[in-house]
Amino acid sequence: MVKEIVTSASYLFLQFGYKAVTMDDIAEHMRISKKTIYHYFDDKTSLVRLSVFHVFEEVKDKIVTIQSSIDNPIESLYEIKKIAVQVLGNKDKSPQYQLQKYYPSIYIEIRKKELSAFGETFKTSLKKGIKSGLFRTSIDPDFIMRIYFNGFRGLRDIELFPPEDYDIDQIIGKYIDYHLRAIATPKGLQFLEEYKKTI
To answer: Are 74 and 196 within 8 A, CB to CB?
Structure first.
């Protein structure tokens, strides 16, 4: 039952936002009583926390699968972008904005997990790019990985990029383009230009 509640709550939170969705909404969506939810969760914050980590684990599995199954690191980055937009999107409800504003400790906690969860697979992807001639041999994969993560965090900063003014799909796309142009070889840039015509 805990898993079912977390799964349903995660879906609603991403659709409508962490603040907007009430325990009543979750109960109604699941066709159970609110009392049943409170039997398993002390409060909404504890449910939000588990839901955020549930989504995080799902996203992590998808990203690891993409990076291990797609050899071309430019292609894999754009495939990962699709997942990021799904989770960070929904401009009208802005779940990320609500998470930062109303549950800042959970937001900080999840940000701390990102580097340890994705850092090594991202470095491996950079090394693939170097080996295939798409990325310059002079880059330091560890440094580039950390710079990339730091920049991606900035995209989600609601003070730097207010969701009402910036479309997350567009700014992630611009950031990936910026990142790739900084590390690509002429061969990599040529592939990037051709690949962008297909997406």
So the answer is: no
